[in-house]
Amino acid sequence: MLPQDSLSGAGVPPSGQAAPLLHGLNPEQLAAVTLPAGHALILAGAGSGKTRVLTTRIAWLLSTGQAAPGGILAVTFTNKAAKEMLTRLSAMLPINVRGMWIGTFHGLCNRLLRAHHKLAGLPQTFQILDTQDQLSAVKRLCKQFNVDEERFKPKELAYFFAGCKEEGLRPRDVPVRDEDTRNKVELYQLYEEQCQREGVVDFGELMLRSYELLRDNDPVRVHYQRRFAHMLVDEFQDTNKLQYAWLKLLAGDMVDGRLQTRGSVIAVGDDDQSIYAFRGARVGNMQDFVREFGVERQIKLEQNYRSYSNILDSANALIAHNSKRLGKNLRTSQGPGEPVRVYEANSDLAEAQWMVDEIRQLVQGGTATRSEIAVLYRSNAQSRVIESALFNVAVPYRVYGGLRFFERAEIKHALAYLRLLENPHDDTSFMRVVNFPARGIGARSLESLQDVARQIGCSLHDAVSSISGKAGANLGAFVAMIDVLREQTQGQNLRAIIGQMLQASGLIEHYRNEKEGADRLENLDELISAAESFVTQEGFGKDAVALPIDETGAPLTQSPASQGLDPNAPLLNQPLVDADTGETLSPLAAFLTHAALEAGDNQAQAGQDAVQLMTVHASKGLEFDCVFIGGLEEELFPHQNAMSDQGGLEEERRLMYVAITRARARLYLSHAQTRLLHGQTRYNLRSRFFDELPEECLKWLTPRQQGFASYAPDMRAVGAYQSGARGQSGFKSEAFTSPPVPPRKEAPAHGLRVGLAVFHTKFGEGKVLALEGAGDDARAQVNFPRHGTKWLALAVAKLTIVE
What we know:
Elements: H1 27-33, E1 40-44, H2 50-63, E2 72-76, H3 79-92, E3 101-104, H4 105-115, E4 127-128, H5 131-144, H6 154-166, H7 179-198, E5 200-201, H8 203-216, H9 218-227, E6 230-233, H10 241-251, E7 252-255, E8 258-261, E9 264-269, H11 284-292, E10 297-301, H12 309-319, E11 340-345, H13 348-364, E12 373-377, H14 383-392, E13 397-399, H15 409-422, H16 427-433, H17 443-456, H18 460-463, H19 469-488, H20 494-505, H21 507-512, H22 518-537, E14 576-577, E15 584-585, H23 587-600, E16 611-615, H24 616-619, E17 624-629, H25 646-660, E18 663-672, E19 674-677, E20 680-683, E21 698-700, E22 757-760, E23 764-772, E24 779-784, E25 788-793, E26 799-801
C-alpha cells in the first residue's frame, strides 16, 4: 500500500463533495484515481474495475477543482464505452457532461475538424463516409477511369487507401516498389481529389486530417495543448501508429529530438490483452509511451473482481510465457472456486455434443442461465459443428458479433450455386450469384432478363437465350458455366461437387484476393466438412453419389438391381428416403434442405435466454458465468498462421489469456483427437497451452495423455467421462463416452413402445405416440415439441431411446 499522503492527489485534501467518490476503492484504484499531475501508466488487468477508475479519476479532478469540464480529454475505443462513462459521471456529479471531450478517436477528430474546418480545408457541412459508402465511392472512381476491376478490386483498393492513412501516408509519401503499387497510388490520389470535390471524408481521413491540422497549425496545436491539461486514454494497447502520433501532438512538441510535454497524460491499458495486431494495433505503443513521456509512475490494478483464483492462476501462468511484458499478476479474494475442467473428445462432433450436454445440465441444475454461458472459438468456421449440436436438441443460441454459419454471405453464395446445380430454375439463387463474383452483368441487364422471363412465362435460366448483345453474351456464359458444371459433377460425391463448384464459380479466387478473406475461405472449407459430416450422419456414407430420382417420383428403395444400382452395395451408398414423406433425396438435395432448416430455425429472439457463441476476438470486454473454449489444438489454437513467428505466437497466447479471463465461475477447456477440417479428417495434437497451465488448477474429465503424441483413437484407454454421460457415440472406446445420445437399438427389434422418450438427430427429443408395422416396414408416430407430430420409418430414421 502506498503512503497515505500519496493517495490524496497533488496535495489536495478530499473535499466534502470528493470524499464519497473514493469510497470502496482498493489501494491501487485509490492511488490511480488520486494521482498527482504528471504522466502515468495504469496497467489494468481483466476485471479490475478500470472503467470505474477512469470515471472516478475524472470526477475527482472536477470535484477537487484541479480541472474544469472543458479541460479534460478522455479517449475510449467504442461509443458504448464513451456513453457509459458520461452516464456514470452524470450520476456522480451535478454537472452537464454534454460539452465534455469524451469519445472515440474518430468522434473527437470529427469534433476538432468541425471546429476548424477552414484550416483543415473542408466545407463546414462535410459528410462522413461509412465503410459501405466508401466502397461505393471507390466503385464510382473505378468506373469513371475505366479501371480493370478484376485486377484492382474496389474492396482491395479501399483497404489499401485506409492502410496508407493509418500509417499517416498521403499518396506522395507512399513508397512505390512495383507497377501495381504505382497504379494503386495513382488511384489513391484520384480518390482523394474526388472526396475533396464532394466534401466528404472517410474514417481514415478523419484521423489523418485531424493529425495534419495539429501538426501544421502551431496556434491551434498550442491552444489544445494548453486547454487539455488532463488527458486520459483507455485501451492504450489497441492504439495504432497514427493514433499515438496524434496523442503526442496534443501532449507536447518535439524539441531537439525529445518530447517536451505539457499537462498530464494517463494511459490505461493491458499489454496482455493486445489482440488486434491484424487491425494495426501496436502493443509496443505502451513501452514507447513509458520511454518517450518519461513515465515515472506505473500503477498495476491486479485485484480482480470477476473470477475465482483457479481461473486467474491459469491465466497468470499462461501469459507468463510471453516475453517483453510490462508484467502483472491477477489476484482475487473470492477463493479458488471450481477447478478448470478439461475434456478430450474423440472428434469435433463428440466435443460439441459434450458441450451441449454440459450446457443443458448447467441450465437444468440452476447453475447458470443460457445467456450467462458462452462458447468461444478461435475460428468462425468452428461454430458450425456447435450450432448443429445445439440445433439438434432445440437449445436457443445467438452468434455474438457475427452471423450463424449458414447465414454467412460466402456460405449463402455457395449454397445458391449448389441449388442451381440441383434446380436451374431457382430464380432466387440465380439472382444471388449471377454477378457474384462480378461478371459484368449489371442491374439493367437483369431487369431486361426479368422482363423477358415474365413475358414468356419461364425461369430466368430459360429466358437468357432471348437476350442479345453483350448482356446476352455475359448471361449466356454464366448459364453455360452452371450447365457444364452440372454435367461434370454427375455421379460425383457431395464433397467433390462442392469442391469443384467453389473453384469453377470463382468464389475461392474472389475471397483469396480479399484483404480479409481468410475467414471466408475457412468458412467455405468448413462447408465441405459440413457436407461430409451430414452425409455420414444421415446414412448416405461419405462416398454416396447424387443419383437420379426415379422419373415417376417413386422412392428408389425396393430392389437396387431393378433401379440399375449395385445390388451388393451397402445401404449407405443408396439415395435416402426422407423419413417424413418417403421422397427420395440425393445427398445434394438432402444437404440443401438441411442447410435451409438450420438457417431458418433455432435463432434466439431478441431478449430470449440463449447460449452465446462467439470468436475469442469478439469476446473481449465481455464476461460470463460459464465459458467453454473449444478446439484447443495445435494449428487451430494457436492458429497455424501464427506458428512461424514468435510475435504471432505471443499474440495467440494473449488471445487465450483473454478467453480464460472471460469466465467468472466455471471454465471448460476442450480439444478433439480428430477434427473434420477442409473435408478431411485430421488427427490433431493437443494445444501447447495445456502444458502452460498449472496442473493444480485443472480437473481432467478424461484421462490425460502425456506429451505431444498423435491422438489417434486408443481402444485400450480406460476410464470414462463421468459428468452425466448417458451413452456412447463415435469410437467404441471406454475412455470417450459422449453424451447425449444412448446406443441405438437395432431394427427390427427396435425396442420402442408408446410413451417412450426418443431422440432424433434433426428434430431433437420427442415422445412416441403410436407404432405400426414390423421389420423394415415398421413406423413410429412421434411428437416433437418444436417440429410437431411426424411418422418416421424406423429402418431409416435415427431414433434412439432417451433413458
